[in-house]
Specification:
- About 75% of the residues lie in helices and about 0% in strands.
- By secondary structure, it is mainly α.
- Among the domains are: about 260 residues, no CATH class; about 290 residues, no CATH class; about 40 residues.
- Helix 6 runs antiparallel to helix 13, helix 8 runs antiparallel to helix 25 and helix 27 packs across helix 28.
């Protein structure tokens, strides 16, 4: 086999078939301005919306608290050890979780202090001594009133805060439950999108390489049509000249044919005119003699026939037999136009036969270039390790999705139950406040109720709320700590490390994520420099550069988010030289020499055969310009007879009716008929004379231009054939150059499309940033944030339970039933009245507040008791 052509050798045909910018002639190319490359489908992604809304301040407060609890950076060592299933460093883990240990101690302290403090307060509430009424209580009524109002106001505020905390706890607990399943779905979907998108990169690269078939098909078509293009260019370039020549030829042929036909008609019409002239002349002479004989009758009145004579002598028309003999034969002129047209339009076929060998050689080079392009594309960096890592994540999410969903349901049920208990406590406080609070402002508001039932109810509700707080506080604080531990670690390990970029740094340390890139790079370097033993320094430098190249997940994420291609954000240019791969000069070398072999030779091409040329020359020498057309036209314009025979025939009919002509009446009528017959011959002569006049006029017209038309035709033929032979090499070279430049544009358009498609279609990683943002939104914003807000709200309630219990006990202690109203007009027996008054006095002493009327009544009762005591 001969030496293989260079990579770009096929593109010479491409350029030679698609045109040059400086084209004098139009290249009849079927290629369009825009090639219909395949539109690559990009990954469709949608953003998961955060449902924080008005709860974002609560979420932010929880984040601030968690940042203060666990301000430590991302524990890369601990996570790496845990992933490797090795034994954890407990002291290191304890140091990292020190904030949560402090929270645990606080929770334990809460568990111990809350029951103890509550028990002490309850014991003091139920076993305190009763306060006896004395005269000094009246002076401290005002100070107790303001103190109790302040306590009641604090209790109202604490109850409102507890109610708000419970409502928020219910809300965020419901948010966690609602978002858990969709969050897991979004995580799995995002992982699947990332895996499918990364997997499709190789397939899309293959599809892009397959799109090379489009410019290849164009190049092949243009190469196969090169002969037709050259021939069509020749035709389009000389079509006007050839058409003008054929028009001139058709004019000359029309003149020749018209001359030949007119000469034939001339001879026929001349013969008819001369024959009819003899008949007409004899008939008129006989008519004249007979009419003159009838006029010899003395009594007869006959018209004068002296004017019945012929005028035009058609025997003076010359013969043109010699001109007809000099005319070229019709066979030499027939089909000359069609023959010239066919000869001219047969040029593309001759071009096809002469260009075919060059096209076959260029087609072979084109196939070799395509194979080389495909082999180079196989060296594109592989993302197999990254795909495997994402696939493992997706599998893990899918495996743990159902257990996580189940445990979240359990958490939701437990949380809902404890929130319901907290809500019951708050409701008890609210109802107790609603019943007992009016007493502080209007002490007599319940005086009409017997046995102070509403006050007893309020006290009972306070005590029930306090007891429920004591009983369930340990469950509350335990749930708070559990949720705080898991939600807080989820925030600090995942969400916060994501936003601070620490998680990206941890992923960068996992060498297996981008290991396939390095493998491809090493294999590529090995293939480029197989004799590494001969150049160890170069190989060491290459390996050091390869080791320095390590893609950064943070740079990839932020690059994709800003619209940067994955090719640049992953530094693939260090592994694959895209510019060299898409360098058009690689596919343009070595074609000029082959292109110069394309040539077309049209020697022997004749638009007018020799017999046609000789026929035109014979027609030019026929001598029709020697005929005296002026005398003939004057002769043909002369009247046939002097007298109108129709008028003379009518005159004969009138004379036959005259009585004086009775004897010759029949003769006159007979002569009138004869005259009419002769008149028909006159009309025929007039028609033939007019026809002859037209023929002579046509010959006269042709005779003035036929020699010039023949000379113009032969001159046009000579110039067209000479220009065709002289300009043919320039036309072939110019069309080839024009086609070559169009081919180069088509290849550059394809390579530009390949570059754009690889960088901004195949390696467009906007979907990666959106998918990772969706994971963050679905997990952190929609699940972890509400989960942390839940323990914050529940811890809020636990914190405010302490003042709520204190204020409830104090209020219940101060809220005692008032004494029954005693009228001063009521009659009580002395021995009974004293006991009753003592009971009322004790009740009044135990009451917090009394009206002035009640104080006055108590004073009267006390004076009455003292007076009775003195009498006894």
């Amino acid at each position: 086999m001969g030496p293989r052509l260079s990579h770009g050798s096929w593109l010479w045909v491409f350029m030679s078939l698609l045109g040059a910018a400086d084209c004098t002639y139009h290249c009849l190319s079927s290629s369009s301005d825009t090639q219909p490359f395949l539109s690559l489908t990009q990954t469709q992604t949608w953003r998961v919306e955060s449902d924080g809304g008005r709860l974002k301040p609560l979420y932010n407060f929880a984040k601030l608290f968690l940042d203060s609890v666990q301000p430590n950076p991302f524990p890369e060592d601990i996570i790496s050890t845990a992933l490797k299933t090795e034994q954890l460093d407990i002291p290191q883990l304890v140091r990292y979780e020190a904030g949560y240990i402090v929270c645990l101690l606080l929770a334990v302290l809460y568990l111990l202090v809350m029951p103890v403090a509550g028990g002490v307060l309850a014991w003091r509430s139920f076993h305190s001594r009763k306060v006896e009424v004395n005269n000094t209580q009246s002076s401290s009524l005002a100070s107790l009133y303001h103190q109790d109002i302040g306590v009641a106001a604090c209790l109202v505020l604490v109850t409102i805060l507890l109610l708000t905390g419970v409502i928020l706890a219910f809300t965020v607990n419901s948010r966690v439950s609602e978002n858990m399943h969709p969050g897991l779905y979004h995580v799995e979907t995002s992982a699947r999108i990332i895996e499918d998108s990364l997997t499709s990169i190789t397939q899309k690269i293959k599809v892009i390489m397959e799109q090379y078939s489009i410019p290849k098909a164009e190049i092949s078509k243009e190469m196969n049509d090169a002969d037709d293009i050259i021939g069509a260019t020749i035709i389009s370039s000389f079509n006007t000249d050839v058409d003008e020549y054929l028009i001139d030829l058709s004019v000359s042929i029309e003149d020749a044919i018209g001359t030949f036909e007119n000469l034939q008609l001339y001879q026929m019409t001349r013969t008819n005119l001369q024959a009819n002239h003899t008949t007409l002349q004899n008939g008129i002479q006989g008519l004249q003699s007979r009419v003159e004989s009838l006029g010899k009758c003395p009594t007869c009145d006959v018209p004068n026939p002296s004017n019945l004579t012929t005028v035009a002598n058609y025997y003076l028309i010359p013969s043109v037999d010699d001109k007809l003999n000099d005319m070229p034969p019709a066979s030499s002129l027939a089909g000359l136009i069609e023959q010239g047209n066919l000869t001219f339009h047969a040029i593309p076929q001759k071009c096809s036969e002469q260009v075919a060998p060059t096209i076959a050689a260029l087609m072979s080079v084109l196939n070799e270039s395509q194979e080389e392009l495909l082999n180079t594309s196989h060296r594109f960096p592989s993302l197999e390790s990254l795909i495997e890592a994402v696939s493992d994540c997706k599998t893990t999410v899918r495996r743990f999705a159902d257990p996580v969903d189940y445990y979240d349901f359990v958490r939701w049920a437990v949380s809902l139950t404890l929130c319901m208990v907290m809500l019951v406590i708050v409701v008890l406080m609210v109802v107790a406040l609603s019943l007992g609070l009016p007493v502080f402002f209007y002490p007599t508001i319940y005086s009409t109720y017997q046995d102070a039932r509403l006050e007893h109810t309020a006290i009972g509700l306070y005590r029930a709320a306090v007891v429920a707080s004591f009983v369930f506080s340990w469950l509350f604080i335990l749930l708070v700590f559990i949720v705080l531990f898991f939600g807080g670690n989820a925030h600090t390990l995942g969400c916060r490390s994501w936003t601070h970029g620490q998680l990206f740094g941890f992923l960068d340390q996992q060498n297996n994520i981008f290991s396939s890139l390095n493998n491809i790079s090493q294999s590529f370097n090995t293939s480029q420099s197989p004799n590494t033993s001969q150049s160890p320094n170069i190989s060491q430098e290459t390996n050091s550069e390869t080791q320095q190249i390590q893609p950064s997940t943070s740079a990839i994420y932020h690059g994709c988010k800003s619209g940067q291609s994955l090719f640049h954000s992953m530094h693939m240019e260090q592994h694959f030289d895209l510019e060299d791969f898409l360098n058009a000069s690689k596919y343009l070398d070595g074609f000029n020499e082959t292109a110069q072999n394309m040539s077309v030779n049209l020697d022997g091409l004749k638009l007018l055969p020799d017999n046609g040329r000789q026929g035109l020359l014979s027609f030019k020498q026929c001598g029709i310009d020697s005929i005296n057309y002026h005398e003939q036209l004057l002769l043909l314009s002369t009247p046939v007879v002097k007298t109108d025979l129709g008028v003379f025939a009518n005159e004969l009919d009138k004379k036959a009716e005259v009585p004086a002509n009775g004897e010759i009446k029949e003769e006159l009528k007979k002569e009138a008929e004869t005259t009419r017959y002769l008149n028909t011959i006159v009309k025929l002569q007039q028609t033939n004379a007019a026809k002859m006049s037209q023929i002579v006029s046509a010959l006269k017209t042709i005779s003035t231009v036929y020699k010039a038309n023949v000379d113009k035709t032969l001159e046009s033929l000579t110039q067209t054939e000479l220009a065709l032979h002289n300009q043919l090499p320039y036309i072939v070279g110019n069309v080839s150059q024009c086609i070559m430049e169009k081919g180069e544009q088509s290849l550059l358009r394809y390579l530009d499309w390949v570059r754009h498609a690889i960088l901004y279609k195949v390696l467009d990683c906007h979907w990666l940033a959106v998918s990772l943002d969706n994971v963050y939104t679905a997990v952190c914003l929609n699940v972890v944030d509400p989960l942390n807000a839940f323990w914050l709200c529940l811890g809020w309630c636990c914190a405010f339970l302490v003042p709520g219990v204190i204020f409830s006990i104090y209020t219940a202690r101060r809220l005692k039933p008032e004494p029954t109203f005693i009228s001063k007009d009521t009659f009580i027996l002395p021995e009974k009245k004293t006991e009753n008054m003592k009971c009322h006095t004790e009740k009044a002493a135990s009451n917090n507040y009394m009206s002035l009327e009640e104080v006055h009544e108590m004073s009267m009762v006390s004076e009455y008791i003292k007076s009775k005591t003195c009498e006894d």
